[in-house]
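SHOCT domain-containing protein
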Amino acid sequence: MPQLSPAGNEIVQRLGQRHGLSTDAVTHMLIAIHNGNGSMAQFNHPEFGGCGQWMRGGMTMVSDLFNYQLKSRVENICNDIANELANHQTSPFQGSFQSQSQGGQSQGSGNTQSQASGAMGSNNSLFVPDPDQNWWPEELGVPNATGAQNNIRYAYFSWSRRLAVKTGSDVWVYDTLDHQIGGFGQQQGGGSSITFTSQYGTVNLASLPVVSRNGVAPVPPTPAPAAPAAASPASETASNNMAALSPSDNGNRQEASGNDGILGTLERLGALKEKGYISDQEFEEKKRDLLSRL
């Protein structure tokens, strides 16, 4: 929550006395209008009847719809605060994001919608300067819109197609591609995710390319080495057929077959000699002849 400067405290005291309100109520409305860029506010304070909305030159809504005295009181204090903010503004208000918190709490419970703090990036002497005001990379320049929700900050730079998001101490910069961003949301519950709205509807922030994190560009992952292509059955069959037709393999097979035949002949000759069908001399001559062929 922004802190009031001495000038801001003096304004709160003076307006509280003028309108018969506590300093807490005036401070609450001052911050609400400041967050609405000096022209609108969403508030929730018992001295204003609880929840309500105000827009300069437009509608004023309070919880007690037929309490016209309360409605007039809200309009008067809001107009005076808006004038004071305009008189103490040292730079133009910037645009703001419309943010929606779902499943969590933001000034209420359940699904609530609140104006993100677009004035966080502006300068107003009623508030103590934020030491972390310009938290995005300097080279991005001045954002078109800024906002904050649930400890997450946003800064949108439409002209350079960049979006800066601060989560904790990390500053992420995204390429917004051709999206025209108009708002942000956070889904709470069984896991938190950040979404934004554009001309394409609701989009998950994780779908945008990351340009840098804390000023360092992401390192692209090293591609895994390609696995060797598996041989197809047809190629294996062709390879086997080629191997079967290899002259050297055919020669080896013929040689092995011939050796087996010679040894088989020797065994048969030995059997004939034992039975007395051939003499020892005939056997030796045949054996020498066959062995010479090995």
